[in-house]
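Homework help board

Subject: predicted structure for assignment chain

Our instructor gave us this sequence and asked us to write out the predicted structure in token form, then describe one feature. I got the tokens but I'm not sure how to describe them. Can anyone check?
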Amino acid sequence: MRLEHRLNATEQAQAVARNLLGDDVPFAPVPYFWTDQYDAHIQAYGIFPADAELAVLHGELDNRHFVVAYGHRGRVVGVLGWNSPREVLKLRQLVADKAPWSSIEGSAPPVGALAGAAGPRG
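My token output:
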């Protein structure tokens, strides 16, 4: 996957430095994007498969202030924040760590197939 974002360039430089110092760890960035659309600040880390399980980890969809986790094959593969920059920043580590989906199950009500996966409507 090709990632063109300033954060990716920074992470590449950090990975090179670590490897030059002997870490010998492959560079495996977490895809990331953000956008401001009128009154919505949207941030996304990871990937978002069409058949993913979803759970709201923070906030509520109806008030347009939330973080949703995406799970696939038993792992957290993405987090999407809508007007929740602080919260999504904290939860992005779930994606980087490929956290087990079971680690978040029960902490928030599942969203199911989430008709509003691209964001709340209204």
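Reply (TA_rk): Your tokens look well-formed. For the description, you could write something like this. Strands lie at 32-37, 40-46, 53-60, 65-72, 75-82. That's the kind of observation they're looking for.
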